Amino acid sequence: MKVVLASNNPGKVREIRAIAGPALELVLQSDLGIAEAGEPHASFVENALAKARHARRAARLPALADDSGLCVEALAGEPGVHSAYYAGREGSRDERDARNNARLLAELKQDRRAYYCCVMVLVRHFEDPRPLIAEGIWHGEIARAARGANGFGYDPLFLLSNGKTAAELEPAEKNRISHRALALRKLLELLHAADRR
Does residue 67 have an active-site annotation? Predict the structure, then answer.
């Protein structure tokens, strides 16, 4: 199935392409001159739907969108939907990631439990009354210092039960167990089930 991917985040694009493999023929919205949609909503699902509908309307193709973020128990779920801009919107993506990680470490005290949440949405047509929606949750905790050079965003701080951060995983391993992998696999199952009807 040919779909427009409603993301300009190079890390997300790389991971979604690797996870989807040949199941989806992905066209980047940036390649079609489509600007990113706003993310004004308070939930991952609303933001993902807004992005998918925006791309679907502009591209006239089915659209796939992901909204995801890090939720920290001791911070009442923050940074959550504000993960990308937790410490402001200025600077490059790498500069924002570094500031976001520094702010998170400064604000966190004892309880370090956290999880990544990803909501993946596929809108087949703009007024699709039944968009396909899947969620993936990846549990971990926040490390006391950043480690690892892989991944992006909060990955250097996201500590797994095996003692590694998400940024210390090889990309293929992360793409097997991450929140994004879980959500996209569930979404593809929903798509196959819908196609069989």
Answer: yes
Lookup: tokens for 54: 């925006």
- Please pick, among 67, 97, 155, 195, the residue that the annotation labels catalytic: 67
Domains detected in the chain: 2-196 (3.90.950.10)
pLDDT band at 38 (very low <50, low <70, confident <90, very high): confident
- pTM of model > 0.85: yes
What is the DSSP-derived secondary structure letter of residue 79? B
The distance between the two most distant Cα atoms of the chain, rounded to a whole number of Å, is 51
Q: pLDDT tens digits, residue range 74-131?
A: 999 999 999 999 999 999 999 999 999 999 999 998 999 999 999 999 999 878 899 9
How many residues are given for the chain? 197
CA 132-138-143 angle, 5° bins: 150
As a whole number of angstroms, the distance between CA 137 and CA 122 comes to 18
Per cent of the chain over pLDDT 90 is 92
Query: What CA–CA distance (Å, rounded) separates 108 from 166?
Result: 19
Sign for the CA dihedral angle at 174, 175, 181, 185 comes to negative
